[in-house]
Amino acid sequence: MHILYKLFSFKTLDYMSSVKFKNTRFDPDSTPFHALAKQMAKAFGYTADLAIDKKIAQLLRLRVAQKNECAYCIILHAKTSRKIGLSEEKTDNISSWWNSELFSEKEKVALGYCDILSEGSNKNFQHYHDAMTQHFSEVEIAEIAAIVINMNVWTRLKLAQGETPYFN
Question: Of 81, 110, 112, 121, which has the fewest CB atoms closer than 10 Å, so is most exposed?
Answer without folding.
Answer: 121
